[in-house]
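Comment thread on ticket #2218

A.B. wrote:
> Attaching the input chain for the structure job we discussed in standup.
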Amino acid sequence: MLHAASEERIRVRYGETDQMGHAYYANYLYWFEQARGAWCRDRGFTYKSLEDQGVLLPVVEAHLRYKGEVQYDDWISVRIWTSEVKRSAMRFDYEIVNETSGKVVTEGYTWHVVMSPETRSAVSIPPFMRELLERDPSSFERVP
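C.D. wrote:
> Ran it. Output below, let me know if you need it in another format.
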């Protein structure tokens, strides 16, 4: 179930828009982060629980491709899935749908490196974490 997707609904707040009334471009990265948290919770764990077990997962690369508009008070749905997992890195892919228009408005991805908090360097993905990544979200109760 490595590539099973999760979705997070978000209502665009006024403070997330620019003077033209469009969502400010940097907020998309915050929405990606919120979706990653939901992806973890759908599999029965949290980012905090990874950190408590000695694993950090920093973003080392981010890419966004804007294809349409998002404005104040629109509902968006951020779809997220893992598309690639390597020895010590993983890639999340994202698709943002503007529920108001029904269109895909943004596509993107982020690369993350599994890092030791002690050495601040990359480490192999530990077995417990691989098990978490491969969980079928339909088999777990979502962590609130």
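A.B. wrote:
> Thanks. Noting for the ticket: The helical segments are 27-42, 47-52, 127-133.
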